[in-house]
Amino acid sequence: MTLATPSALFGPIFSAVQEHALFADSKSFADAIPRRPAAQILADWSAEEPTEADDLRAFIEANFTVPGDDHEGLSGTAPIEQHIDALWPVLTRRQEHDADDSSEIALPRPFVVPGGRFRELYYWDGYFTALGLIRSGRQDLVEDMIANMGRLLEQFGHIPNGTRSYYLGRSQPPVFYLIAGLSQDQSGAARRQRLGWLRIEHRFWMDGADAQADAETRRVVRLSDGALLNRYWDDQTGPRDESWREDVKLARGAPDRAAEELWRDLRAGAESGWDFSSRWLGDGQTLATIRTTRLIPIDLNCLLYGLEQTIAEEARALGEGADADAFEARARARAAAINGHLWNEAEGFYADYDLDRGKVRDQLTGATAFALFTGLCDSERAQHTADALARLLRPGGLLTTLRETGQQWDAPNGWAPLQWIAVSGLRRYGFTDLATTIAKSWVTMVDRHYRATGVLLEKYDVEHEGAGAGGEYVTETGFGWTNGVTLELLAR
User: Fold this and answer.
1) Is 401 inside a domain boundary?
2) Which of 85, 93, 145, 409 has a CB 3.0–4.6 Å from the CB of 274, allowing a cystine?
């Protein structure tokens, strides 16, 4: 199923709004709801196209409802655990019916949004948010989110980045197997349904897996030795609707690079969830050099290993031995490929593989923790990986990378999901002291900042123990995955 994006549906109107910077955030108009059918609005536009900014604004106000950033109810003074418990109803939404000609995608059940400009269901946010929902006694919302994601898999063949038409070309890190594992419905029918959803997700990521050696198809890469691994991608190539103005400007400033290639790498970076980071940049500093699709990411492949293992385990438990054997073989092959190609022996950590250079990179990032989280490394490599993670430790928790670029997934920022992945992975291998230090550093910083400001943030500066910065928009409050991870770490 496909849905028209706002830029495709409203063409010249959408371009005019973004080029005039009518709204500070490009996402605002991408989320607007038309007051009348699109055909009528476009006909009026064609009859008398506004040429002045004031006339354009009047036209938009007459024909669209444009959302603002809703921060009401997100601040508080209660102890942090009580405040987070009280935030879940504020962040819970219903969108059971599509608004005509809008970017919204309907869902059958309630869902929790991150907060601020992020007013829809987001994929990988959902897992980290769910950890806190369970701690708050909101298992009902966890079951709702699992059902919603299952519906998306049935409807689109994948879980999109978020529930907007302009996100349909991409997904996000495949954590659905982790979310599904949080369900308390262990009936045979429910388990078979969830297993079916996991298989749909796996098919999405592995489309093109029959390719010959040295071939790349969408998200699948087969290396010269036959190893089968994955990369981030996006099936669309234009500027992102939610960042249209920024993407067009970036392309205009990079005349030596094909715009379609640049935009696809930006979109693939958004699929990674790390939008954006020096991790993806050719020169390690400049966004116009982004080359996400030329890298085989360690975190993505670790999660797909986890997905394949989970499918095998569930299939065997449900009496589907042949399928279980097949997925166990897939998981073993992927683990061997990861350990063969994504381990940097000289540096002592897992990292991304560079397709153009034919070797693993030497940049240390928080993504190395995914190898511990999914349990695919031996004890010796686990020790080296733990030592590498200790290099990222700062007073407020783990840095995302060691480089400062102004991008939000770089130093000095730290993010809740990476704290949880690292703490969980370190505990899995018995590195409890480092895990405890990271957890305590994070929750102490988050609680101190909350008591000073009354809000929880999407990202933090772990060097200086304050608000994070950088990226394409102001740091948002709310905030789903910070709430979830912080509650879970506090409880442990």
Assistant:
1) no
2) 409
Number of domains in the chain: 1
Euclidean distance between CA atoms 245 and 251, whole angstroms: 10
- Tell me which residue of 113, 134, 115, 133 sits closest to 123, measured CA to CA: 113
Q: Which domain holds residue 58?
A: 6-65
157's CB contacts (< 8 A; 6+ apart) are: 200, 203, 204
Amino acid (one-letter) located at 33: I
Bridge pairing between strands 393-394 and 220-222: unpaired
295-296 sheet: strands from edge to edge: 295-296, 353-354, 359-360
* CA-based nearest residue to 277, from 258, 297, 260: 297
Q: Which of 169, 207, 386, 191 is nearest to 304 (CA)?
A: 207
| Cβ atoms 431, 440 nearer than 8 A | no
Nearest to 242 by CA among 69, 123, 117, 122: 117
Whether 83 contacts 112, CB under 8 Å: no
Question: Could you tell me whether strands 64-65 and 33-34 are parallel, antiparallel, or unpaired per DSSP bridges?
Answer: antiparallel
| CA-wise closest residue to 18 among 10, 27, 26 | 26
The enclosing H or E element of 272 equals: helix 259-272
**Does residue 46 sit within a domain?**
yes
pLDDT along the chain (492 residues), means of 10: 87 97 96 97 96 95 91 90 97 91 97 96 98 98 98 98 98 98 98 98 96 87 96 96 98 96 98 98 98 98 99 98 98 98 98 98 98 98 98 98 98 98 98 98 98 98 97 92 98 90
Catalytic residue list: 275, 458
Residue 314 in 3-state DSSP?
helix
Question: Would you call 187 helix, strand, or coil by DSSP?
Answer: coil
Q: Is residue 48 included in any domain, yes or no?
A: yes
What are the C-alpha distances in Å from 147 to residues 141, 194, 299? 10, 9, 25
Least Cα distance to 270 among 298, 249, 245, 239 occurs for 239
Task: Please give the C-alpha separations between residue 382 and each of 338, 351, 393, in angstroms, as whole numbers.
Answer: 14, 14, 17
CA distance 269 to 221: 17
Which has the closest alpha carbon to 334: 291, 369, 303?
A: 303
**Is position 107 within any domain?**
no
